[in-house]
Amino acid sequence: MHRLLLFLGFQLLGAHVFAQVDHRIDLECKACSLAEIVEKIQAQTDISFAYQSELLEGRVFDISWTDTGVEEAISTWLFSNGIEYVKLDEGYVVLRQIRELEHAEHLFCGTIIDQLSQEPLVGAYVVYGDGAQGTQTNADGYFEFGLPKYETLQATISYIGYKDLLVNISKKSEEGCPTFHLALDLENMPIATISEFTVDMLKPEPAKNRYRFEPQEIPTLPGWGEPDVLRSLQLLPGISSPDGTASDLQIRGSSSDQNLVLWDGITIYQTGHFFGQYSAFNPYLIESVDVYRGGFDAQYGGRLAGIIDINSSSNLGEEARYGFGANLVSAHALAEIPLIPNKLGLTLGARRSFADLFPSGTYRNLFDVVFQNSRLTDNENEIADLGIDDIEVTTDFFFEDLNLRLDWQADDDNAFGFSAYSGRDRFDYDFRVLNIGSRDELDIGNWGMSTWYERKWSDRSKSWARLAYSNFRRDYRLTYSFNLMANPEEVFVGQDNAIGDLNFSWRHEWQLGKKHKLEIGGQFLNQQIDFSYSERRNENELDFTGFDFLATTEAWHTTYTWQPNQRWDISLGLRRVSFLNRLPDDIPLLSDRSWQPRWRLLWKAQEMPLTFKIAGGWYRQFLYQVPLALDELSSDDELWIVAGNYFPSLRSRDWQAEATLTAGNFFFSAEYFHKFTDNISARDLSVAFEPNDPLKFRGTAQAKGFDLLLRYRHKRYRAWLAYSNTLVDQTFTEGTETVVLPPDFNQRHRLNFTHMLSLPKWDFSLNWEFGSGRPFTQPLGISEGEIDGNVTYALRYDLPNQNRLPANHRLDIAANYKFVRPKWRGKLGLSIYNLYDQYNAFDYDHYVLPPDAEFDRFDPEIVRLERRMLGFTPNLFLQLEW
Predict the structure, then answer these.
(1) In terms of DSSP H, where are the helices of 648-779?
(2) Would you say residue 57 has pLDDT above 80?
(3) Cα dist. 688→250, 684, 782 in Å?
């Protein structure tokens, strides 16, 4: 652990430890070890120390300091014991053995800076001889060490993301302490260099057309505090959630069901907890997330919009890691245990909400937003307005997720792994008043497991194989009764939706020389999709409707990558897919075969850190959601179905072009995208065509726009500005009539302005978000009719989604205090979502209020129901690790 701290300490930016604060300490210590003395100094100051565990191992000291300046005290004491300290960033000190400069014949020293920005490079390596001897630069980019002789000695200066520099020590020593300029290594810049100038948690990788996201690098997430993975992704341009939830992610004008979400290769269909307010993944168990906003590799298939590939953390080291944390809604625990150091590691994690035991104000805010203007809240409000006391309302809700991972590094060439995931939400709402009662029961869950094998045949050849199973279920039950004395009535309604997903995939990669790489692979996927609807009144026979489908997908893919020189990186891929959907009795419903090419070209300038990239491809999707759910919870109202002779397969093609530029501490990215999708279904066109079945309409969608990202980093401060402009049009034809409509999730403009500051003991973050309003349908008026001699009223519409909601904006903030002790560490923080409590509407609904002379209403009226996003919501969070 101390070796890790030493390495991380050298990477920190900054220059002053004791500046501006005159640390005074009082310390009496008899026969204390170095670790004990350091712990006592840290307890009285804001200074953190990093050192190797063997430093002064076995020695003890008697210390007596009274109102002594900390720098004065430790410099004298450490020097007398052969230890020196190096000041890194503010509040961080590295202890190390003194270099015997006084016994050296020559001194080699200098300052290492970035050739472009002229800023010092902290933690750059300077080594000589066989590479086992040398040093690193301090916070000013300075280094020095003594040498006995240097006649023919050469030193190598290196820094991640930069070209190595070879210098002759004898010649440079004659210049005193010269300045060395390191140039960017543009060939490796997408992975290493750009990340130095961007937010650490989001690292762009243009050569793979993706972002690498590392949740553990988040200081604190604005408005949420804890690093919720799906909410964090919304800070990227091109990824948004127009309704303000975590899981309803729209990527570049596509619906959320067009995203493939994987956890260690397990397909996750239920990606959110608490009706989407929280991600369904424990963020403290995530090692990395690969995010594709279209243009993904040929190895991925089954979705049109994007890929979110999550890899959980593993521990194959020597030290165990344990953790516990909580906020005002849930608590979690984790354990990473090396069963056999460096060979076999076990990871366990669990998270559960406790609102069913201790409902907090934060939970109630979330509950009110989820169920606003639904039957649940309407019942309570109407009863309260009537002043009825005889009311019983019981709400039982919780969510949970469990994780297990086992890693076995058999040897240097063979590795095995196993991962299991389970997530569940359980909601039970019981409402009783007078002689009327209703009960809603919703149980949503997704569990799965995967096992994999990795084989390194040589330095140029690797193989991967994975077997994964995923099971999704959604069970809804509604029971309501009317006890009308002699004629009691009870109605039961049930709806089930389930998916069983068995997936085997393999991949092999060859490095064919320095310029060529070839990858081949395959996938075999079996899916069973079930849907059923049942209804019963009193003791009558149960009316049941159910569908079971069996779908198989066979895919083969290959990708060839060519790097003819340092300027070009060309990738060409092809995916061949055969899909078959049938009923259990082998009656075929759809057979679909397709070739899906993928391509990507990257050009890098040699004179400056500038890149251009263009990418694209063809895609198919056979499993998607339609709005056929029949519950009345006003929450999760989408149903998973599989393509067949009634629901066609979705087809898409897209292309995108991006330019990126790194200049000093700034990073700039501009990307244009254009996407075409066929066979989309009309989700709610009854107000346009008045069909009996709105899903019979097939149409096309076109999405285009651009994403801009400007980011700045200076020492401990990071800021970025992300802007997205997206235009989506859906075209439907009925007979000779054609309409062009925006989808209800289309948000034309979106902007995030984010700031993060990480100090030795504190983390602060702030984000201001602006988004233009989503489309909605405004009724034109009221039409009258007559049924059985009674006058009826209905809303009259023109085309849907011709109006837009008001723009929305909010300010989110968060702060946490960090405490570090020799054997454990933690943070305690406060986050506030929507600090100034801005009213942001995400949906309008309308109904007719008929005339009622008792209330002096002589004409029918149109009533608007507005649903708002989450308002002012504070949250406390605590995280401990040891």
Answers:
(1) 686-689
(2) no
(3) 25, 8, 16
